[in-house]
Design a protein that fits this description.
8 helices, alpha/beta, 12 strands, binds pyridoxal-5'-phosphate, seven-stranded mixed beta sheet
């Protein structure tokens, strides 16, 4: 029996009656770039994450790059990231011209180890980017404490953590700025590429609005050097439908993780994920450790 890694066909069948009219609405209006569905989704996702602002962008990688650029991070600067993450976290940092500094991870959380974080600082450190890997929020309190002490920014790579909670607060609103991916296989996935940046800071929001659309606020009025990195209206319409189901899907992932933990615990030499109330994972991935 082949078990698919993620069965998007099956998921599509359950929401097809909502998805088709959402797509057709965009086809009828032909507002493919920054249409009303994109703005609507941005507001819905900001509300979902309990933050003031959300900016839809072209991918999760673009979200990280633009978030760092909004913070004015570039050549000569250093960004600390965990050694154990998806390659995009590092590539997005280097795309800004900044350098990546890797720190090791805590074996239980698989996230940045706040105890070794201190040693990674140099005078050039501009930001720490914890990654809520596998859907489990990083130990934000200790990371934020170290960051405040050094006066640097904290950027969440929340690409795997839509709906994850750290002490009752949602991923996306735990630091200065946060980055999401809507790659199809993510917990909240589009039917193509997509991403978003969330923040409570109006000045950062304003920079992001310009950066993702050629630096313009009005057509042909290019205020800064931006790029083309907008969330497709079609993808936004799809994401609005799927957002309504996200909490239920995440709850089922957590139930499955709980069950796997109970069943696998009997096996020798298998380390199962720690299930924590404080860092409530949305189990983008369920990862076990074995000696071999
Ligand atoms: C998926 C992912 C990204 C990149 O997102 P894309 O939308 O594929 O560009 C970045 N960081 C992490 C941790 C991811 O899992």
């Amino acid at each position: 029996m082949t078990v698919p890694f993620v069965d998007l066909k099956r998921q599509f069948r359950t929401i097809e009656p909502e998805i088709r009219p959402a797509i057709e609405g965009v086809l009828e209006s032909c507002a493919f770039i920054m249409g009303p569905e994109m703005r609507a989704f941005e507001q819905e996702f900001a509300r979902y994450c309990d933050v003031r602002h959300c900016v839809g962008v072209a991918s999760g990688t673009a979200a990280i790059e633009l978030a760092l650029r909004a913070l004015d991070i570039g050549p000569g600067d250093e960004v600390i990231i965990p050694a154990n993450t998806y390659v995009a976290s590092a590539l997005a940092v280097t795309a800004t011209g900044a350098s990546v500094v890797l720190v090791d991870v805590d074996p239980v959380s698989a996230n940045i180890d706040a105890d070794v974080l201190e040693r990674a600082f140099t005078p050039r450190t501009k930001a720490i980017m914890p990654v809520h890997l596998y859907g489990r929020p990083a130990d934000m309190e200790s990371i934020l404490a170290v960051a405040r002490r050094h006066g640097c920014f904290v950027v969440e790579d929340a690409a795997q953590a839509h709906g994850a909670r750290y002490r009752d607060r949602l991923a996306g609103g735990l630091a200065d700025i946060a980055c999401f991916s809507f790659y199809p296989g993510k917990n909240l996935g589009a039917y193509g590429d997509g991403g978003a940046v969330t923040t409570n800071d109006p000045a950062l929001y304003d920079r992001l609005i310009l950066l993702r659309d050629f630096g313009q606020r009005r057509k042909y009025e290019h205020l800064i050097k931006g790029t083309n990195s907008r969330l497709d209206t079609l993808q936004a319409a799809i994401l609005s439908v799927k957002l309504r189901h996200l909490d239920r899907w995440n709850a089922r992932r957590r139930e499955a993780a709980q069950l796997y933990n109970e069943l696998l615990r009997e096996l020798p030499d298998v380390a199962v994920p720690d299930i924590s109330k404080e860092c409530e994972s949305v189990f983008h991935l369920y990862v076990i450790e074995v000696p071999d």
